[in-house]
Amino acid sequence: MSVSSMVDVADAVTFSSGPAIQRIRLHEEAENQNSGQSALMDDDLLQYYHFLADKGDVQAQVVLGQLYYQGGRGVPVDHERALHYFMMAAESENANALAYLGKMYTEGSAAVEQNNQTAMMYFKNAADKWGNAVGQTGLGMMYMYGKGVAKVSVYMAYILSVTCLGEENLLNSSNDKIQNHLTVHVKL
């Protein structure tokens, strides 16, 4: 094939929704940890996710929110940045972002003042509207510990959270097993 025919083919290619961007996942980057370029790769990958998030990619916004919320991969914990990215994703009604906002408001930090009513609103939105397991578990934990709502039994809190998790077979479990299950999913 001649160079001129390759140029003709390249000119004929169109994008229906803008330029094609291929996403690189953070877990794929772990394969390059031993290459000696991991620090450079981390910076490049982080910049890439910032680029995607700024362009409106909701998944990139959630990934950055989680990364800044929990820290890791050389990125320090920064709850203000986490809040920023979770709020961006929450504008698109992303269930994971809503659930993490509930978690942030339940715990409180330098970025947000602890507020059970706001936490409940985010958990409820994530759980009711989207069936999000973290949102439902957050609701269950708030009821179990009486955070901004009337305290209910461990069993009732579990019932409130279990429906989305698809683990109805555990409904006859002991209180210790139920409390452990709730604590594993959302640590309040």
Automatic annotation (TrEMBL):
What Gene Ontology biological process does one annotation of this record name? ERAD pathway
One cellular component term from this protein's GO annotations in UniProt: endoplasmic reticulum membrane
Query: Which Pfam families does the UniProt record give?
Result: Sel1
Give the family this protein belongs to, as stated in its UniProt record.
Belongs to the sel-1 family.
Q: Identify this protein by name.
A: SEL1
Biological classification of the source: Eukaryota, Metazoa, Spiralia, Lophotrochozoa, Mollusca
